[in-house]
Design a protein that fits this description.
The protein has 80 residues and is mainly α. The chain contains 5 helices and 2 strands, in the order E-H-H-H-H-E-H. Strands 1-2 form a two-stranded antiparallel sheet. The two termini are 20 Å apart. This is Transcriptional regulator.
Amino acid sequence: MRVICHEFIKQRRIELNITMQDMAKILGFKNASTYLKYENGEYSLKANHLPKLADTLKCKIDDLFFIKIISEIEIGANTA
């Protein structure tokens, strides 16, 4: 399963000296506090945000994700 890597997004934004207010403006959010909720994972990013986000962070869309490996035990617990 592919999951957004919020820590990568935050680290990359900081490395590139992009403020949360700038990110909010680029992605079309009302303000920095709204953007922060996306960056922290409180809100889910929409698919249409990903190209702008990757472009701004100078990375590929795939770089925004990590693969979550689900063990057979977890899968078995969910089907019981």
